[in-house]
Amino acid sequence: MEQTKQLEEMERYVYTIFRKDATGHDFYHMKRVAKMGRKIAFAEGADPFLTEAIGWMHDIGDHKLFDEPADAVAEAQGFLRRIGLEEDVIQEIFLACRNISFSKGRMPDSLEGKIIQDADRLDAIGAIGIARTFAFGGAASRLIHWPNDPKHSSVQHFYDKLLKLKETLHTKTAVHMAASRHAFMQDFLDQFFAEWDMPCDDIR
Ligand code: ADP
Ligand code: NI
Questions:
Q1: Atom of ligand 1 nearest to the CA of 62
Q2: What are the b/e assignments for 26-57, b being 16+ CB within 10 Å?
Q3: For the chain, which domains are there?
Q4: Dihedral class, residue 63 (left if φ above 0, else alpha if ψ from -120 to 50, else beta)
Q5: Residue to substitute in 133, 143, 154 for testing ligand 1 pocket (most ligand atoms within 8 angstroms of CB)
Q6: Which residues line ligand 1 (CB under 6 A)?
Q7: pLDDT in tens, 145-196
Q8: Ligand 1 atom, smallest distance to 124 CA
């Protein structure tokens, strides 16, 4: 099977797995990461096929999302074998996937893995990042904001993680793309607190 067709098959496979996710890890997150990764790969001289493939697969086996992570990975590897990927390519894809997640604090070795880590982080900031944060928070029963005990609120997540992400990017291309997304998040938080602090004594 030619590579373009293999990538289309991956898209279909990932659609069946993530189409019902309501935690911000839905099919379109995978699609944005895969396609943004491909774009960054061209700019950075990386392998576009390998980068896009890692993008499609990067959240398969995430412990937050799968009850049986090892089974999900084994199943996806079987699928990649069936559509004709070589064993060493499959291993390379999942080696990169294991190291992408921010929460694990690791970094992929390959340029293609680093690019997908960048694309995943770009999708966690900006307007989409804001939307995903509150979707994730809602799905995990987190409060929007709780001034007296902010530890577990979604707004706190911006300070714990999201506002720091632009400093952790690997590629120049992603750093460039991150600037306006980062600024938008800061504007959002300014507006959020301005509205939060607005006096409302006249409301009955
Ligand atoms: P990764 O898989 O790269 O480690 P996460 O799964 O932690 O990333 O984050 C995925 C999405 O979920 C991001 O949009 C992130 O903002 C959101 N998210 C993760 N943890 C929290 C949290 N504690 N509160 C609100 N949103 C969160
Ligand atoms: Ni992701």
A1: 2
A2: bbebbbbbbebbbbbbeebebbbbbbbbbbbb
A3: 3-202 (1.10.3210.50)
A4: alpha
A5: 133
A6: 24, 62, 64, 101-103, 120, 124, 129, 132-133, 136-137, 142, 154, 157, 162
A7: 998 887 889 999 999 999 999 999 999 999 999 999 999 999 999 999 999 9
A8: 14
